[in-house]
Amino acid sequence: MLKTTEYLLLLAFISLSYDNAVFRPMAAKVDLYNNAYGNYEADVYRRIRTFTYGQDFGQTSWVSNEESHEIPALLGLRSNSHVLEIGCGSGLYALSLAESVSCEVLGLDVNEFAVKNANRLATQAGISDRVRFQTCDVSKPLPFQSACFDAAFSNDVICHIPDRLGLLRELHRVLKPGGKLLLSDALVIGGIISHQEIAARSSIGYYLFSPPGENQRQLTEAGFSVLDAKDTTASAVEISARWRQGRENSKVELIALEGEMNFEGLQQFLRCVQALASERRLLRYLYLAQKSQQ
Ligand SMILES: C[S@@+](CC[C@H](N)C(=O)[O-])C[C@H]1O[C@@H](n2cnc3c(N)ncnc32)[C@H](O)[C@@H]1O
């Protein structure tokens, strides 16, 4: 028969082994964005993006190729459209959009490596007159007049913004009447999640997890009509699996650039995204909303 202390020790050992098997405690913070944008041109990062997404748009998100190609049609973009991208990352998205539709795009991101890279790409492509990027923390009021954009989009960024409703209200303000907004959120709660999983899933920065229906409710409160809410969780499953595999294939090169701790931390982050999304405990949704015509 086990004594109480032996029993407690055994329980602690079992739970520790379980933690170790699933998500080991790693460095408190893991860097994704500085590495991805700062090393954008490195061949190894380009190879991994192509392996992960099939087509390199400089992504650091869970947007499938199919979804990327649908953006102009969903937003109803035309050659005279003036488009705002929130959290533009490396900038290649905005540039591809501007090249395919011949519209004007302004991309905002808080990460200076991202904005520097994006402006460099715009200059290289010779379209810096109509595609521009600005360092901007979108958790603060947007530095634009009201009703000056025809459409706006944001791939997997709102999860990082503390006052989501504030940002949605700002987006509503800067859109012209009838303007459309497309945005995704990969952190909609679908089931039970442990504190270790929340820690691993949040290891790369500030994150908000939201209950189902909350994004639609906040979009409505900000003044939008919600036209569609599409479950795109399968994209997060597939992309996280391929991204982790692509990184594993280039482990030695990545460790030289990122360091071992960060490499392992990001692998664990991606493993966690894949596990939570494949078990539908965290869901990804793509929302299409519109400001009224009046
Ligand atoms: C998941 S990445 C998505 C990047 C890009 N949209 C894509 O699809 O690849 C999230 C982006 O949001 C940016 N971000 C996070 N907090 C922000 C803030 N407060 N203001 C502006 N951008 C922010 C990050 O720097 C990062 O580039």
Which key phrases capture this entry?
294 residues; alpha/beta; binds S-adenosylmethionine; 12 helices; disordered N terminus; seven-stranded mixed beta sheet; Rossmann fold; 18% strand
Describe this structure in words.
The structure is a single chain. With 294 residues, the chain is of the alpha/beta class. The protein has one domain: Vaccinia Virus protein VP39 (Rossmann fold, 3-Layer(aba) Sandwich). The chain is 48% helix and 18% strand. The protein has 12 helices and 7 strands. It has helices at 4-22, 33-38, 43-53, 65-75, 92-101, 112-125, 164-174, 195-201, 214-221, 233-249, 251-258, 260-278; strands at 82-86, 104-109, 131-135, 149-154, 175-189, 225-231, 282-290. It has a 7-stranded mixed sheet. Strand 1, helix 5 and strand 2 (104-109) form a beta-alpha-beta unit. The longest helix has 19 residues, at 4-22. The radius of gyration is 20 Å and the shape is globular. The termini are far apart. Bound molecules: S-adenosylmethionine.
